[in-house]
Amino acid sequence: MKTEHQRTALITGANKGIGKEIARQLAQRGFAVFIGARDIAKGRETSDELCRAGYESTFIQLDVTDPVSIRTACGTFSQKADHLDVLINNAGILEDHGENILDLNTEMLDRTLKSNVTGPILVIQDFLEHLQKSKIGGRIINVSSGVSSLARMDTYAPAYSISKTALNAVTKQFAGALKEHNIAVNCVDPGWVRTDMGGVSASRSVEKGAETIVWLAADAPQSETGKFWHDKQEAEW
Asked: Which whole-number Å values give the CA distances from 50 to 114, 223, 235, in the listed order?
């Protein structure tokens, strides 16, 4: 049976970390959540966990680095729901904690850009037909990072930093292209969050990391688009 009246959200990389917490918070808000994840076992486990808690959740296998996987996921989604209200591009990789741009491995840079930039572009392009069917106006949220800010950028993780700066540019491009379609497109710096990527020393909980993303998905005015956010405030590009 298709999800028809409920608000719907698809989150990529939702089997753990910030993505899983976003899914949990949106499910608590009454959304039917779609858990996009490359790892079938972990994706299903996350979705089942939400279902056992009484929420509506569906797992969809989705590898953002594989165009065929994205297309297939889109087809699977169309069998489960008749519209998409919120798309959250959360999946991403960080491989270069200790790297320096002077000796940056460009193969790693290519992998990072494929996951963190090209992937979100393809996901938006393929799922756009479903976002355009939203009765309340579609919303796209790209999970960026504080290290993407050109105003504050230094030497940390060059491949990751460059990819997130590019994702911010992708956000601006889609915001401009989709404004007349009533689809808001924003990006978020969730802060340094205790996840597999952020590590145990990070200063923020996953709940805090997900907060602004959930706000943009559920509560922010539809007119807010083409902006970079941190703690529900506009951040410096």
From this structure: 30, 31, 32
Q: Is residue 210 a contact partner of residue 18, using CB atoms and an 8 Å limit?
A: yes
The model's pTM: 0.96
Catalytic residues: 160
Say yes or no: domain 8-234 is CATH 3.40.50.720: yes
Domain boundaries, the chain: 8-234
Q: How buried is residue 143: exposed, middle or buried, by Cβ count under 10 Å (0-12/13-18/19+)?
A: buried
First to last CA, the chain: 43
Give the pair of three-digit tokens for residue 223: 């007119």
| Separation CA 220–CA 214 (nearest Å) | 9
- Give the per-residue pLDDT at 224: 98
Residue 48 contacts residue 74 (beta carbons within 8 Å): no
Longest CA span, the chain = 54
